[in-house]
Amino acid sequence: MQHSADTGKQISVVEKIDDAPGKRALITGASSGLGLEFAELLAAQKVNLVLAARRREPMEKLAAELRRKHDVDIVVEPIDLAAPGAAARLKSSLDEKSLQIDILVNNAGYGLHGDFLETPIERTTDMIQLNITALTELSYAFGRDMAARGSGQILLVASLLALQPVPSFAAYAATKSYVLAFGEALHEELRRQGVVVTSLCPGHTETGFDTAAGAPVSPILRLLTMKPRPVAESGLRALSQGKASVIAGFMNNVVAFSNRLTPRSMQRATMKRILGP
């Protein structure tokens, strides 16, 4: 599987997205982490926004700040995308407001740390609903509109963990493997219809992911940790350049390359040492 490298070189995203002013982006998971960074970067390019996440208050605060700084139109849509049918309800809400989505940032998702059999299955299926089902439904609903218009951009947030089996993150890593494979396949399917689909693979990032997942952070993982801004920049830059996928950060690209040289049994053992209890 081929992936584009992104070493964190500072190239202005603003210079790369064509006709950004006046477009509208839907960002899921917009109340924290990478969602905040995507919102800030796109608003700085005069892209109007729809922010979608469970918590209204942080999104309203972010929207007020970005309106003041960048003079863009922002709609806040509080919604739990892990709930069955939520993606369809979000699409209907935006259709009722006559809001056309030009850029879809499928960022919402979370992880669960721990042995699979020791995690309540309801929590695992809830995660799968958000990480896979909602992402797929949103890509379908807004991708159809984009294909009909002959233009559009979809960014899917996968993970570096998508590239190998990961004990202690078994189901989470598997959901991100789906996102990466799904996104790269859609890249080929939709490019003929003028729609760009890019999958972003972040490594360990300062987003609060560990706290939410209940995961410890090993010394090795701390060394590989990236700030969220350059990760978001690498994703939007790859999207604007029409790439199928991108791995954020030089060291994460080294890790990904090393996977090509090691057997999967060694990959499993290594990930267990780094991410295990």
UniProtKB/TrEMBL annotation:
Alphabetical keyword list: Oxidoreductase, Plasmid
InterPro entries: NAD(P)-bd_dom_sf, Sc_DH/Rdtase_CS, SDR_fam
GO molecular function, one term: oxidoreductase activity
SUPFAM superfamilies: NAD(P)-binding Rossmann-fold domains
Gene3D superfamilies cross-referenced by the UniProt entry: NAD(P)-binding Rossmann-like Domain
Keyword Flavoprotein: no
Pfam families in alphabetical order: adh_short
The EC number(s) this enzyme carries: 1.-.-.-
Enzyme class: oxidoreductase
Xref: PANTHER family: DEHYDROGENASE/REDUCTASE SDR FAMILY MEMBER 7B (PTHR44196), SHORT-CHAIN DEHYDROGENASE-RELATED (PTHR44196:SF2)
Family indicated by similarity: Belongs to the short-chain dehydrogenases/reductases (SDR) family.
Protein name as catalogued: SDR family oxidoreductase
Organism (species): Rhizobium indigoferae
